# Entry
Amino acid sequence: MIAMISIQKMIAKALHQSADFNDYCLSIIGKTFDFHIDPSIAQETETLPYVAIHKFNKAHDVERDDEWIVQLIMAIQSESEPIEEDGIKIFPSSSNVELMVDKAIEIIKEELIVVGVENSRLIRVSSFNVLITEVGEADDVQAIVTIKLNTPTLI
# Structure
């Protein structure tokens, strides 16, 4: 059985060590991310920008595939000044974090194929869900990404 911490470490390592991901983030927000695995809610607030990877769910059913679900929280500084386009004010923070999440998912999918987890290269991202939040009193924009991984059924 693959441990949840192995999945978390694979995600953090893949993103942290990816020159492609880091260059992409630098081009969008001018910074790279700090990475945390299972940070405590009681600890001090993380320095922006950061990615926190949390355990969520692990399932095993002898009649079905193994399944792992992790949550990744990506937080960046909120842009207070809008960009005006054709008379419309656009606040780019939520779009920026969405772009970086899409890039992160791309990197994670590739890492699963090329490197794998605990000597297994059969695990794949089966689905993911992205919720972008902007809390009024906070100075950050967060994307909460739920990633579902499983081993594909061989036919």
Q: What stands out?
A: The mean pLDDT is 89.
